[in-house]
Amino acid sequence: MKRVFLAAIAAFALLLAGVMAEPQAQAMKRKQNFSARQWHFDKQKYAAQKVNYISDEKPGTIIIDTARHYLYLILGNDKAMRYGIGVGRSGFQWSGVAKIGRKAEWPAWHPPKEMIARELKQYGRRLPEVMKGGPENPLGARAMYLYQNGRDTLYRIHGTNQPWTIGHNVSSGCIRLRNEDVIDLYKRVKTGAKVIVKKGGFW
């Protein structure tokens, strides 16, 4: 009888723990939802500016330093335009060499099926299969599509309507800039430009 009583108490304790854990799980989902965080954009640190930058790469090349959250557009004569960026969060970081395969103004957003499933499972948020371009679009004002060996990598350099995320690891692998900065970069970059993505400050 005593064993039955103790077993009942243990079962109730597990049930109670599950009920208490649910709000905690929801809170964790909200905490991990990087898109909902209201960080402050550090203009002094991440606003676009011309800087000294020594590189053997040709003018027009883009070098992305994900560790320091900067994108450099090589200008030549040891100069570069530097832009603050948001980069891939843990598990979505990558490195390598690509090219600008195409460019688009106020692009439509087609989230990959994997992203749609992931967002629904992790955050309970259902993403649209396609979203027309505009101020509310996550790709922002401009997008430059990264290709490797003639194929779309599904990674982009794009704008954002969440400028407070610049300087943080927030995306699913894409490189984001403030809309005003991505518009400036877009004007300067040509289709076919080389893009070098460094991870952790190294190749």
Lay out the secondary structure.
Elements: H1 2-32, H2 43-46, E1 49-52, E2 62-65, E3 70-76, E4 79-84, E5 87-88, E6 96-105, H3 113-123, E7 142-148, E8 151-158, E9 169-171, E10 175-176, H4 179-188, E11 194-198
Quick gist of this model?
This protein has 203 residues and is an alpha/beta fold. 28% of the residues lie in helices and 29% in strands.
Description of the molecule:
- This protein has 203 residues and is α/β, with parallel strands linked by helices.
- The chain has two domains: 1-32; 41-198, Beta Barrel (L,D-transpeptidase catalytic domain-like).
- It is 28% helix and 29% strand.
- It is built from four helices and eleven strands.
- The chain has helices at residues 2-32, 43-46, 113-123, 179-188; strands at residues 49-52, 62-65, 70-76, 79-84, 87-88, 96-105, 142-148, 151-158, 169-171, 175-176, 194-198.
- The strands form two sheets. A nine-stranded mixed β-sheet has the order 1-4-3-2-11-6-7-8-10, covered by helices on one side.
- A hairpin with a 4-residue loop joins strand 2 (62-65) and strand 3.
- The radius of gyration is 22 Å and the shape is globular.
- The relative contact order is 0.21.
